[in-house]
Each structure stands twice: as structure tokens, then as C-alpha cells.
Amino acid sequence: MTKSNGLLKKFLLAAAIAAPLAPALSAQSGPDYLNERKEARDQRMRWWREARFGLFVHWGLYAVPAGEYKGQRSNRIGEWIQDWANIPREDYAQFAKQFNPIKFNAAEWVRIAKDAGVKYLVITSKHHDGFSIFDSKISSYDIVDSTPYKKDPIADLSRECKKQGIRFCFYHSIMDWHHPSQYVDAPGRHRTAGKDKNKILPDQKPIYIQYMKTQLRELVTQYDPEVLWFDGEWVDWWTGEDGRDLYAYVRSLKPSIIVNNRVGKGRQGMRGLDKGPDAVGDFGTPEQEIPPTGLPGVDWESCMTMNDTWGYKSYDNNWKSSEALIRNLIDIASKGGNYLLNVGPTAEGVIPEPSVTRLQAMGRWIRTNGESIYAAGASPFKALEWGRATQKGNRLYLHVFRWPESELTVPPLENKVRRACLLTEPGGKLQFEQKADTISIRLPKTAPDPIATVVTLELDGPPRAK
Ligand code: FHN
Fold first, then answer.
1. Which tens digits make up the pLDDT trace of 277-291?
2. Best substitution site from 124, 310, 316, 340 to test ligand 1's pocket, by max atoms within 8 Å of Cβ?
3. How much distance in Å is there from the Cα of 348 to the middle of ligand 1?
4. Pocket of ligand 1 (CB under 6 A)
5. What is the Cα–Cα distance from 315 to 134, expressed in whole angstroms?
6. Residue 97 contacts by C-beta under 8 Å, 6 or more apart in sequence?
């Protein structure tokens, strides 16, 4: 038997084992998760809406080549190396033998996340390469069975997140370059899974879906995640109906779980705008961008890298500054979204130092200014030339990026301003003058925080711009 036949056999066997579970795997009966009442949805989404800041972790076999294959480097993203270096599936799988994260320390990862001020952590359970970073009973292409590490880091990580009060969540790719169902020919390339990224062998699609559902059940029952963050849904063979079915299925496993829009076919390009009858999922996912005016009326989260890759690449040093990252967080909050900021740990299990120092800087800012971010709502103003604004209750938070010469000019409000102070000096008072067409606030000579100083305005009611 050839190696690929052997693999096919393993997956068919796995599907046969899963077959008696089939009724439990379909979500035909029970609550109608696709038509949830608004109050139930608001309650389910509450913690996520208040969180505002999450840590994305792309961790998998691609950290071994770290962006380099047979002496070739590319400027493409690291976790796509199997595709861009055209690596045959069997060769790529050999990286598992070198994936030995002996420096992985769950307590330290979670401490880094917590100190940064993130409220949730989303880690890749399986990226497009099909390798499971968790202990999967239905696949031996996982960290326990195929690597010298032989342990399950995800068990430690989920436990540690619970312990330190960080919500634990999974990313999971629908497209799978390792599964035999997607092992299709593509002209001019090695015959390796995913090379024609849009194809699946039609008779094997049900087997693959069963396999994916079984893995998702493993993820939910073994690690109790709070978000499932799907990806790789753009392939032609994944349909709107598949998306709706999978959404209902994962909600049936854990009704309170939150699911992103990439479970279905609603994503418009990278923008994460949900449109049309195939849109399903709880939040939009703009990627590497902040929508200029937010996405009014929908929950959304911008996922972004700190350098130019998601998975670790040893030579990508194009790091964004801490200032840019902090201002991104503020900008996103001011538009009513969440910020999911990525790190790509090494194959040894280390979060790269430049990422850690940036997260520390974010943590320092957020420790003193968190009140203006967590559970804060979008700005009542269309635009502010000196910065951004957020709001909570009767308070308006003015995030000043460009410190004015003497006075800060704020657009008019319907409300009466009762008091103005620096967020970091709640006992202090700033002088202000409120006129019909403007509010002027007298500020100290120099910015207490040149990245973003927050001025709090206490109003006679929830902020309303004129
Ligand atoms: O192809 C992936 C990519 O590798 C990365 O995981 C990002 C994160 O949002 N999503 C995909 C592209 O949309």
C-alpha cells in the first residue's frame, strides 16, 4: 500500500469509528441556533463585547522552517510555506520530527498575555497544513503522536488560561492540505494536498466534514473553548449550507460558544462584512485592517500581525512600533470593535522577544487607561483630528494622540459637561469652556503620555454628539 493510500485508510477508518456518533454530530433537533433571540445573543456576546483586546497565536509545524526552505526565503507569510515553497505533503510532514517545543511554558505564555491586558487568547488548533497542535484521537498527524515532544501543550494552556482568568479560544482551518480528501492534482506542481486549493474529492467531502466535526468535538470537550474562530472557508467546495450546518453543530456542542463569520460564506474579501443569505456567525473579521468607520450594526474584530507574518518567520523584522499597536487598539475600540493581535511562537515554544516587549508596552498603557477601553463603546463623533474617543455610561474618554499647544478643541455635545480631568488623575480638574459649537479644555503644557493621554469628561447623560 502506498503512503497516501495508508493515510486515506486511516481517515476512512476514523470516519467509520465516528459513524455511530453520526446522529449526535448533526444538529437537526434542539434549539434553532441560526435564529437566536436578540436578548439571548446579547447575553452570550457580552463578555466578548467588553473584552476589546485578544491575543492571536499562530503555532504549528511551519515554525520549524520559519520561512526558509532549501535555502530559499520568501516574503510571503510563514504559515503558508507548504504552499509557496510547493512542498510535497509527505516532506512537509517531516517537520513534525523537529517540532519539539521544550521551552514551552503555559504559565509564562498566559502571564505575557495577561500582563499585556488581553482578555482572551485564540490559538490555532489546526492551520491550513492540517497538523493538530492538540491531542487528537482521530488523527495521528498531531503533536502527541508525530513529534518528539509527545505531550499536549494545549491541555496546559487551556488550564492555565482558566487559572489566570483569560478566556481560552481556538482557531480552526476548514481548508486542510494534509487530509486525503483535498489531495488533488494541480498542473505544474507536486501532487500535494491543497495545491489546487479550491478542490476536494467529491465523494470524500462527507468523510472530511465528519472528521472535522469529530475534531471540533474533541476541542470542545477536551479544552472547553469560548470562541471557535474558523478560517480557510473561501474554498469553492465549502458552501453556505455547510457553514450554517457547522455553526449549528458547534453551538449544539456548547450553546454559549461564540463563532466567527468565517464558518460560512459571508466574508467579502478580507473585510469581514457579512452579506447575503450565506452570512452566518457572530462577528465579522476584518484582516490586517481597521475599517475606517467601523462596521456599524455588527460585532467585529480586526485581526492583525505585529510584523508581516502570522506564523513564525526567523527573518521578519518588520515590527510595528508599540505606539502604533497601542493606537490601533484605541482606534478599534473607538469604532466599536475588538483587536486580535497576533504572535507567532518558535518551534521551541518561545514567543519572540520583539513581540513580548511590545505586549509589555501595551500592558503598561492599558493598566493606567484600561477604563477607557474595556467595555467602552464607540465614539459619538465622526472624526477627531487630534485623536479618538470612546464612551462608557455618562463618561466620554478623549484619547489625545496629537497634543495641542494649549487647548483641546472638542466638537459640540448635546450634553452638559460636568467635569473634566485626566484619566490618570481622577481627583484633579481641568478647566474647560462649553459653548454651543465647541468645547475647549485647558491642558498641561506637555503630554503626560505622548502615545495617548486620556482626558475624561463627565457628562449629565450618555454622550450625544450635536
Ligand atoms: O490564510 C490565513 C492566514 O494564514 C492567517 O491564518 C490569517 C489570519 O486571519 N487568515 C487567513 C487568511 O484570511
1. 788 999 999 999 999
2. 310
3. 22
4. 77, 79-80, 231, 287, 303, 310
5. 27
6. 146, 147, 148
∠ CA 348-350-355, rounded to 5°: 145
What pLDDT is attached to residue 194? 54
162 alpha carbon – ligand 1 mean position (Å) = 26
3-class secondary-structure state, position 189: coil
- Cβ pair 397, 376 in contact under 8 A: yes
CA 85 to ligand 1 center in whole angstroms: 17
Q: What number does the ligand 1 atom closest to the CA of 80 have?
A: 4
Q: Identify the CA nearest to 374 among candidates 329, 420, 319.
A: 329
CA of 285 to the centre of ligand 1 (A): 11
pLDDT digits (tens, 9 = 90+) for 385-427: 999 999 999 999 999 999 999 899 999 999 999 999 999 999 9
Three cell numbers written together for 341: 493581535
Q: Which domains does the chain have, with CATH numbers?
A: 3-372 (3.20.20.80), 387-459 (2.60.40.1180)
Task: Output the pLDDT for position 20.
Answer: 33
Whole-model pTM over 0.85 = yes
Distance 232 CA to ligand 1 centre (A): 7
